[in-house]
Design goal:
740 residues; alpha+beta; Alpha-Beta Plaits; Endonuclease III, domain 1; five-stranded mixed sheet; flat; disordered C terminus
Length: 740
């Protein structure tokens, strides 16, 4: 209570008032006969809750103590269901109840009671009478989670430091039997599985916890989980789940990890001997810190463990802390690491209160680090830009370009930059001028033409800090802005202009560096000197690139012609065959499709290697082709074309009552255009280029249509009357446009 017990009634009334207000807000009603006030402990849903924690209801415990041994499956299920409600209070509950739960495997019809089951039944009833008090978890205090795994199960204990003096009290127990697949895991994966299952069980306390918590395990390799470079898929999924929690894994020897060790190892049957596995000795410690145990005073090596000291860490008294930090930070094996790395080295084995503060203070004050390490942070100080000029030549920047080779007796350039228009004046000088000469140059070459400025920015050269310079500008009413020491960014526009001038002079001077003064004239009038340079440089680059491209093209042409032959001499009007290499035909199998179609007539020659052909409208492709896709057509030799036989004439049309008709040799394909069904027809006695698309109503022989649709059932077909349109089936492999 604040201010002692004097105000206890008012504090209690405030609590009651808050509870009643919440009940009124949510329209919840209480019955006075069922309410209890001024109680130190209450019975709630089978638990007994007081200020110290939660424990089982004594009445329920008495019922379990007097529970008779089950004789049927239903009675055993009833007992285990009741006992399972209080399993959180019983350490190693799953292992104790294992012989009983095994009797319910595979849904037995009768209960096969055994001595092992009788022993487990009695142990479980005894565990109810000795169940510990579980403290209330305090989210304002860090948690400690102890985990362990055996060949048959996993166990965990969630604890916190509470009480005065502070002690480690359990908040909850967890245990689970491994399934057959999980038993095949190696020891590392079983230990990692124990961590995962425990985090899932208590994630409502641990996920988003206020303080980082510690996971204690007797498997040392888990300490390096987050530094592992290779993880199998299962470990990668678990590692992704672990990112939701803020914790560190610490090694805790199995000899001291007795609580969770019992939770996991009791799953193993008594008759199955445990297979020994090699482990690291518990006293191995690899670290660059050289520390002599004899130098510690007796109080530091005693068994005294102050509150908050993690298991496995050695407490260091105040008198020895600085020496230990010095050893960890300045030894040859560490080489003056940073704060976090020094702290990590110490935390591997040692602990004391406010350890982070002490290490930070020591490392920040280390003179060796301060003198030898480069700064890793961003430059200090926000940007403070110069005022934006309101007119040309009202705000100037001045500087000198010195140490140039002598050119027409000049070795220096006085640069004056207008910060508004970015234009400049370049004045070649025989050497660095005095302050009076600088003032005269500025007045005669700038002020006379552009007027008196409002402000001049310069560095801290001797000319610009002299009294003559200050008096000169002060009499004219010009403000003086000097850059800070070794900070040329203040006069950044002038420095940038000097870079452009230097690049310009390097471009044109080359090896004749004593001719730089003759290029200042073209440089100065241009508002953007880079434009002149760009055009001159581009002309040179273009000429050089054009020459190089010509050489590469000639070389590639000579190499390619070694694998090519001379082109055929095609003429307009000549017939040629067209390759189907890039033409998709409406045929089922590409391997059995023709490699050339045609013949087609050449209309004209586009260029020495390209020709335009006369194609029928059904192809719907561009009629221009490379000569490599063409092959000469030679007229076929037949009796009708023998000398004296005359040329073969197309057959005459058949005369019908309502007109003339031509004989169809074969129907090749079908399609729908504008809702109308059309067929690609190969005419009897005509060349392939004469093939054409004909409407269905123009084909008079129904046998041709029936034969085509029987051979090609997936092609578009006539729709039956009164029936819905037939779905078009999948297009067969190799389908494409109809060939000529």
């Amino acid at each position: 209570m604040p201010y002692g017990l004097a105000n206890a009634p008012s504090v209690f009334q405030d609590f009651i008032h808050e509870v009643l207000e919440r009940l009124r807000k949510f329209q919840l009603f209480l019955k006075a006969e069922k309410c209890s006030f001024h109680q130190t402990s209450v019975q709630f849903l089978g638990y007994k809750i007081n200020s110290s924690g939660i424990k089982m209801d004594e009445r329920k415990v008495t019922a379990v103590r007097d529970w008779p041994a089950p004789t049927t499956v239903k009675e055993l299920q009833r007992f285990l269901g009741f006992a399972n409600f209080y399993r959180r209070f019983i350490q190693n509950y799953s292992s104790i109840a294992h012989p009983l739960t095994s009797l319910l495997r595979n849904k037995p019809k009768s209960l096969a009671w055994s001595p092992a089951a009788e022993k487990a039944f009695n142990l479980l009833k005894r565990a109810f009478t000795t169940a510990p008090l579980l403290v209330h978890p305090d989210p304002d205090k860090p948690f400690i989670m102890e985990v362990d795994a055996s060949t048959t199960g996993v166990g965990a204990v969630l604890s916190q430091q509470q009480g005065n003096p502070s002690r480690l009290h359990p908040c909850a127990f967890f245990s689970r039997k491994l399934n057959p697949a999980e038993r095949n895991y190696d020891i590392g994966n079983r230990e990692l599985l124990a961590v995962k299952l425990a985090l899932e069980e208590w994630r409502h306390w641990l996920e988003g916890a206020k303080h980082p918590f510690t996971v204690l395990t007797d498997h040392k390799n888990l300490e390096y989980l987050r530094a592992a470079k290779r993880l199998n898929p299962r470990q990668a999924r678990w590692a992704l789940f672990f990112t939701r929690f803020n914790f560190t894994i610490s090694y805790w020897p199995g000899s001291k990890n007795t609580k969770v060790d019992a939770l996991s190892r009791m799953f193993a049957p008594e008759e199955s001997p445990e297979t020994p596995e090699p482990i690291l000795p518990e006293n191995i410690f690899v670290s660059p810190i050289t520390w002599s145990e004899e130098t510690l005073p007796p109080t530091s090596t005693s068994t005294y463990t102050p509150p908050g000291c993690l298991p496995g860490s050695q407490y260091i008294p105040r008198a020895r802390r600085t020496a230990l930090i010095h050893s960890a930070h300045t030894s040859l094996g560490t080489g003056h690491p940073g704060i976090h790395e020094t702290l990590s080295l110490l935390k591997e084995r040692f602990w004391w209160p406010n350890m982070t503060v002490d290490v930070r203070r020591y490392v920040q004050g280390c003179e060796g680090c301060a003198m030898s390490k480069d700064p890793r942070h961003l430059p200090a100080g926000k940007l403070l830009p110069l005022p934006v000029p309101s007119r040309p030549w009202s705000h100037l920047g001045v500087d000198f370009v010195t140490d140039l080779p002598t050119s027409r007796e000049h070795t220096c350039i006085f640069v004056v930059v207008d910060r508004f228009s970015k234009s400049c004046r370049l004045l070649p000088l025989k050497g660095p001028p005095t302050a009076l000469e600088t003032a005269e140059l500025l007045f005669n070459h700038v002020f006379r033409y552009f007027g008196i400025p409002e402000d001049i920015v310069s560095d801290r050269g001797p000319q610009f800090i002299s009294r003559v310079w200050r008096a000169f500008l002060t009499r004219l009413g010009v403000a003086i802005s000097l850059s800070s020491g070794y900070h040329p960014q203040t006069n950044g526009q002038t420095e940038r202009k000097i870079q452009e001038i230097s690049r310009y002079l390097r471009t044109f001077c080359h090896s004749h560096q004593n001719s730089w003064s003759q290029y200042l004239g073209p440089t100065e009038p241009s508002d953007v000197p880079a434009v002149d340079h760009w055009f001159r440089e581009s002309e040179r680059v273009w000429d050089s690139a054009h020459h190089q491209l010509q050489r590469v093209l000639h070389r590639r042409r000579r190499t390619a012609d070694l694998r090519r032959s001379d082109r055929p001499a095609f003429q307009p009007g000549q017939k040629v065959w067209l390759s189907t290499r890039d033409i998709r035909l409406r045929l089922p199998c590409h391997k059995l499709s023709p490699r050339f179609i045609g013949p087609f007539t050449i209309l004209k020659q586009i260029n020495p290697v390209t020709y335009k052909l006369l194609l029928s409208p059904g192809y719907r492709i561009h009629p221009t082709f490379h000569v490599s896709l063409l092959k000469p057509h030679y007229p076929s030799v037949s009796p009708s074309t023998e000398p004296g036989g005359g040329a073969a004439e197309p057959p005459l049309p058949v005369l019908l009552d309502d007109g003339t008709a031509y004989k169809v040799k074969e129907i090749l394909d079908s399609r729908r255009r504008g809702g109308r069904l059309e067929y690609l027809v190969d005419w009897e006695g005509y060349n392939p280029e004469e093939r054409s698309w004909v409407a269905r109503d123009d084909i008079l022989d129904p046998n041709l249509l029936e034969a085509f649709h029987t051979a090609h059932p997936h092609r578009p077909a006539p729709r039956g009357r009164g029936r819905p349109p037939r779905r078009r089936g999948p297009r067969p492999s190799g389908a494409g446009r109809g060939e000529g």
